[in-house]
């Protein structure tokens, strides 16, 4: 029989619960964080620590001083870029696990552009241009690295999860080869797998002396707005979202689904590449093996926690950044290993993914109870 | 006669909706009791309660006079209730016997005792006159026989009360006759049947009693001998309904769409459209009749650019559009009401306003220089909601929250509001209530009168007969005949749809 049989035809159905209100969307993520922190407190107590002291240390480490705040934003920038990357993919119905590889490749490419371009052109490059070139080349590298699995998905149906994972291996091992070989810093004292320092002209200047807070964080916030605008206000965004939510309807609507998939994956890759490029041009001024600390993977958790919305991604990034940054101070104060933070982050992710647990604990009704037992027409 | 099942004062509330409002219903031993109602009348909810799928907020269920409470379908089955869902719950690659014992497997020494099951089935078949080969694979069987498997499955679990949910929706007219013979046999053997449907003709021919539901309430219980289609329809809808579509003779103009020798494969690479040719003129409705699964789906998809055809020719006016992408067809004047509205018709999560521009979001005034113009999209939505009477509290409600009829109105509004030359309407009223059907039929005829060529694909003979100016019958991937609608009877069409009547001359 009918599927929508729960509503009578007349009169006009009642105003449904507004699922798009901020509180309704983020209630579960917020409660997931709270629950994870409570459970984390138990774990800290169980290993012999004082949870209150530990969390106090965490807060101090993250927000307790100007330097702490600055460091938190340093952590947050790559998280925001990479989180946006994953979110854009998700909106297009694509699960980009390849952020880590795209980010590494973006960083490598940006470093190369940063130290090698002046030599190639046999000239100084004006700073603004050189910065734009380095960042652009980093983004392009990420876009290509994300676009390849997108193309494979669009043309052959190969699943992007598998292919982005594979592309991660290629990127990470290729990076390792490049940094140990052709692109290795040639200075005599160097034994580390790293590139030479990029030219002065390719460096994004610091904003405040003595603080590592950099333009990347501001750019990340601006880009979060930009991604929101793109996804919800433009034709391309409409095409990406339609393809992500219902590829059949997208095809019906005349959208070139294959093209949109490639664009969404390239865009996602470009954002991840930008994360790497900014780390190079604004912070480290070179790429070093193992600098990433898993930004590309944390980004998946961040996008999930932020419900794939740019604002959510920013908030989730700040949370993750604060936890990562505060962890060291916590360990210093309470001798509780920083790894406890990884456990809490894992718990957050667990509760966000298995939101039924959170809904059960806090007795939250699912947004719209749809009890449909007999399968009906139109399915 | 004994009452085998009685429900009293059943009330079930879903958020914001009273799905069942103090419903009383009873079933006597050996009777066929039809439950008639529009979508959303509460039939499904009531049956789900009786079958133990959901529990009522209030009221009681009496089986053979004894109050019972079901926690799950298992309890209902134990009380002798069996249900045949509209969409069969069978495993296609299993044999009939395997499907039937699924969930109540017989074991001997730890292995499945298929021999015993086969023997039991033979007995059941002879007792109820349901012929079946227990060893054949379900996916090799025609739909009518698959349904028979479902019925035997219920009987195998010792069902004495059989609930049939829209059992005729997927059957040919001939298969419907066979089903009715089976149902009458079952009833003679003491089985009691609840027959859920929204088809008026059927209830009048099969039911012993008819209960009509509307808006979660039982409106009336009628004797089929003392009522008629008109009266039942009015009870269902709550107002007088015009069952006959009012239309003047067509004034066909130039050919707007022509299809020549079209060949199309389905997903399994089986050729399901085998050399189809037809023409549609401006201002006429060409009905394509046929039982589901005779190639209509692939034909419609190939015509609308959703599926690549192997060979043939498709022309819009004089332009060749064979295997052109959907956008190109849309820009050349195609409107398309897709068969599966939830799959192709719209994005469920989108607000109504976005779905109303799903095919035109990229052109002015809805989009300028790549940026969506929300005010234009909103105004468009408000206009169409008013013009097409879409029942919604606001244009920004997710489309998934609308009833089926209103969802279909969103699609119809979108397609008909564009500047189209022809319309492919594939099952445009499937699963809709009488009120919405009436409305959509009226709109389609009006489009015809405005000079649009319409291809109407439908498995409902009534719909084909009511709307078409010419009727093409599709059987087994071919068009076996194209006839003027007034020169053919229901019975002839039914036979042609079943492939048993080959017309000697087909008039084009």
From TrEMBL, chain B:
GO molecular function: ATP binding; ATP hydrolysis activity
Source domain of life: Bacteria
Keywords: ATP-binding, Cell membrane, Membrane, Nucleotide-binding, Repeat, Translocase, Transport
Compartment list: Cell membrane
Any single Gene Ontology cellular-component annotation: plasma membrane
Location (main, coarse): membrane
Protein topology in the membrane: Peripheral membrane protein
Protein's name according to its UniProt entry: Heme ABC transporter ATP-binding protein
Native organism: Leptolinea tardivitalis
